[in-house]
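User: what does the whole thing look like in 3D?
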Amino acid sequence: MAPVRNARVLFKDHPQDIGYPEPGQTTVYDDTQTIDPDNVQLHGGFLIKTLVLSIEPYVLSRMRPSFPLPYTIGAPITSFGVCIVVRTETDKVKVGDHLYGDLAFEEYTIRPSLDGLVVLDNKHNLPWSVFIGTAGMPGQTAYSGWKEFAHPKKDDIAFVTTGGGPVGSLVIQLAKAEGLKVISSAGSDDKVAFMKEIGADVAFNYKTTNMREVLAKEGPIDIFWDLVGGETLEAALDHANVGARFIECGMISGYFNGGAPVKNLWQLVVRDITMRGFVVTRTFPKYSEEFYATIPEKIAKGEIKCNEDVTNGLDKTDEVLLGVLKGKNKGKAVIRVADE
Amino acid sequence: MAPVRNARVLFKDHPQDIGYPEPGQTTVYDDTQTIDPDNVQLHGGFLIKTLVLSIEPYVLSRMRPSFPLPYTIGAPITSFGVCIVVRTETDKVKVGDHLYGDLAFEEYTIRPSLDGLVVLDNKHNLPWSVFIGTAGMPGQTAYSGWKEFAHPKKDDIAFVTTGGGPVGSLVIQLAKAEGLKVISSAGSDDKVAFMKEIGADVAFNYKTTNMREVLAKEGPIDIFWDLVGGETLEAALDHANVGARFIECGMISGYFNGGAPVKNLWQLVVRDITMRGFVVTRTFPKYSEEFYATIPEKIAKGEIKCNEDVTNGLDKTDEVLLGVLKGKNKGKAVIRVADE
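Assistant: Here's the predicted 3D structure for the full assembly of 680 residues, as structure tokens:
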């Protein structure tokens, strides 16, 4: 086999100040490199071909030097993805194995070892993209955060933000499985329709609906799943029940303005609220076994629904990221890099 | 006995906007009323003579109509206090009993029942003022909040705000009893000296010392006892350890500006922080028995130290409150209304 293109998405520069990344400035698509899959030296490792990559707000975080695991300027950005092994010099993997983990945004990568990767056992024959969505890191986040911190009780009311995304949509379905009333918000009517489809009792578009009126009518809330922060968090605090649990999973409203200030934290005191932030990598391991034993099967049976928005081609990376940050994606944003 | 003066502190008007109360405007001292202790009709209840009353930030909260239990305009303000029964028509109390509870700011009150009051058993012969300080609501707050939410572990570092007050100073002593390193802040050098006396490893005056530098050098912190909020809370978030517990007991920095905004709540997520607000009345009952079985005795033996700032006379109420809100008191602020 002759050398083939090995296109990459390189990290060029930090986003200006605290703003949105700028296509072509923050990252750059580079298709000048080639690779010879049959002959490239593997030094005892293995060669993978990237199939799907996940685009999520977390990618922006890693573009900032002050956040954990910042990207390296000049190197490909990385995110969760699924790849296939095309050649190997180690018996730790076989050709044809599908691997999941933090992958570089490039068509081919040589990996020295399985560090940071797991071999996927796709016994329910799910599309590989599901393993970066509801059966991947976002699903792990929803599942472990809910199991560890929600403490649902009969007649509780849950409010789930970004309910049209892969984290929020699984949270809605977990809350409904417990018999709770679920209020959920998202930024488009498409997402509102999806939230209703998966069982949300009250679903609204926060861009066109007054959130405080919804919460005043449908609350007070006992569980708040927060991916937004800022004014949304303030509204939730003002409409929380005594003893409410606030699960702080992300604060996208503060990503572009140095942190969206919250003025009414006093409500934490008055209402006996527990606010718990978490990072999935620390919370999930305890739940890994039960997650993989149940969630993929439920997805295969249609008992848990996913919502994807797939874009073809690494060259679309920057615009897909910008779309996600502005809430324009219709479901879990996936870059399909290659078919098998 | 002829009629005697029954001076009162009446709630006149809400503080302007969200500002400080204004002496003479927010409350007014009225000494025009008299009472005849021997002959006033008790209607089956009992007559109490007020001995000591507690002044704390909580009094300001109750001056605002939006807070729980707001005061009634034209009626005396109330706060925790200790009184003595001087006449009774019920056998629920005896003349000479000392009672603790939410008392009106007046020299004499007729109470119909023991509702909201408890009979004090002062077997260690403590000054009555202690029962509105370290052995009263502030101490209950410190004790139950610490026991319920601190989860101290070996080698943890605690950061205690307002460590010179009755809540913070007991928290310092509870943390030291667990063997923790304690950092504590207060607003005067007198209070810093007291915090050192009771065992704080690092004590500083936040008005003259850069808090972030202290935390950078002495942290990261595992337990944060917060009575301040705002910029202090922001500094604590930026210097917290992974898995830290933030106990939100009050947010005095936000009382005069509509709530001090906090911009970096994102740190809750990154650092797996639990932030727990609480109101003493809901948390304390579980600990009431062990509190009264241990704390008064330790105070009597000098194993737990208190710090009081006693002012004589109901007519000083408004200036003492203003002093507390501005941090000018030297210890637990007490109004001594009468001797027995």
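In plain terms: Chain B has a mean pLDDT of 93. Residues 288-301 of chain B form the longest helix (14 residues).
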